[in-house]
Design goal:
Elements: H1 3-20, E1 25-27, E2 30-43, E3 53-67, E4 70-85, E5 92-109, E6 114-122, E7 149-159, E8 162-172, E9 189-190, E10 198-213, E11 218-233, E12 240-253, E13 256-268, E14 287-292, E15 295-300, E16 302-315, E17 323-335, E18 343-354, E19 357-367, E20 392-402
Length: about 400
């Protein structure tokens, strides 16, 4: 989208924000909300836009229900920019846009301690709602292990400092509208593109946390998560299995927040030849294909992920700014295959809160990270194609109005 159009869109958001800021909007018992975001980025590996690129990023609609113990939530998103495939993964062009259901579920609150949700909802795994402070998330997001959404049933039980979530998912959240075969979705899943036939099925999750209080202004949550499921292979009857486990710590200490995660994951296919795309010099069982945002890529089928994030929130007594949150989030994917290069990312930045406006200013650096200059096809798999395995940097500003 040209810069002029983005500026017009941003001014429209400001006018709408002034009109909607006073009161929430309701349609009967349903609260109506949403967001619109504009994004600027500059990439040190791309000379196409020497002055950077400004685009209309996202428009979303939210509906939330809470009446007579019946609860529910729905969010649908449109993103500016999709993918048109011409020669598989190797040759694609960005096109007009794509959209997807972020989540949509109904539930019942049996008591203050217990509720059940049915539909497309967040998978209980790791730190929630996010294992990150920045706009880019952490490395687990890009392999489907942070802020993931699937279709199933989830129970949530809270008893004092204990919280237990148990879930079963019959399938992922599905493909919506876009140019890819199966990747127009918000969270990363195994995808069934025309050059491979794998899908996530029959997944179970369990997540247990315990929160310790330290005086009146500090808490530490420690937790463990387990995930197991099937891989449905369309090209034959040899289905596979997938497993993941996570230990985490999420600590709030006054204005400071500390997040730590350690994850182990495995995707095991009985018939590795189910893949017809990928680096021919590597065993096809050492990588799997995942997709989101209307574009698939490959990831290592087995590995460990380590994450550490630290944030400090500074209240601001200004009319225009409520608070500044400074953060640094680091994560690394250590791949089992010794021939693969590991993937890393670090995001240093600040979130500016001003009423219903939130702005993320990030300096995001990565090595073998597709969204941060790494080879798109294989960055999270072999790392092949990345220039000398170097770190690359993206400066990003995302401005959003939420209502």
């Amino acid at each position: 989208m040209p810069m002029r159009q983005c500026l017009i869109a941003l001014m429209t958001m400001m006018v709408a924000g002034s009109a909607l800021a006073a009161d929430a909007l309701y349609a009967g018992p349903v609260r109506v909300g949403g967001a619109a975001r504009v994004n600027y980025q500059w990439r040190d590996w791309d000379d196409t836009y020497e002055g950077g690129e400004l685009t209309m990023d996202t428009v979303r609609l939210n509906l939330d229900l809470d009446t007579n113990n019946v609860i529910g939530s729905l969010e649908y998103r449109y993103y500016n920019g999709g993918v048109v495939f011409t020669e598989g993964l190797q040759d694609f062009d960005w096109s007009d846009g794509y959209s997807m259901l972020h989540h949509g579920w109904l539930g019942y609150r049996f008591s203050d301690q217990y509720q059940v949700q049915l539909g497309v909802h967040q998978v209980p795994f790791g730190i929630q709602p996010y294992a990150s402070h920045n706009w880019f998330f952490q490395m687990p997001y890009y392999v489907g292990l942070e802020d993931d959404y699937d279709t199933g049933i989830k129970s949530i039980y809270q008893n004092g400092p204990w919280n237990f979530k148990l879930a079963y998912y019959i399938a992922d959240e599905g493909h919506w509208t876009g140019n890819s075969e199966d990747s127009a979705r918000y969270s990363y899943d195994l995808v069934n593109e025309d050059f491979n036939g794998n899908q996530e099925k029959h997944q179970g999750n369990a997540r247990l946390t315990y929160t310790m209080e330290h005086g009146s202004n500090a808490t530490t949550e420690i937790g463990a998560s387990l995930q197991a499921g099937k891989i449905e292979v369309d090209v034959d009857d040899d289905d596979g299995d997938r497993y993941a486990g996570c230990l985490h710590l999420n600590g709030d200490y006054g204005r400071w927040n500390l997040q730590l995660e350690a994850i182990r994951y495995e995707y095991s296919l009985e018939n590795a030849n189910g893949y017809t795309m990928g680096p021919s010099t590597y065993d096809s069982g050492s990588y799997v294909m995942m997709g989101a945002y209307d574009a698939p890529y490959l990831i290592a089928s087995k590995g460990q992920i380590y994450c550490a994030g630290l944030a400090y929130t500074l209240p601001i007594a200004w009319d225009m700014i409520d608070s500044l949150t400074f953060y640094d989030d680091y994560s690394i994917l250590v791949k089992d295959d010794g021939a693969f290069e590991d993937s890393e990312q670090n995001v240093l930045g600040c979130m500016i809160a001003s009423g219903r406006w939130f702005t993320y200013v990030d300096v995001a650096s990565g090595r073998n990270q597709p969204w941060l200059g790494g080879n798109w096809d294989n960055g999270l798999a072999s790392g092949a194609g990345t220039t000398e395995n170097e770190w690359q940097t993206r400066f990003n500003v995302n401005v959003g109005f939420y209502f």
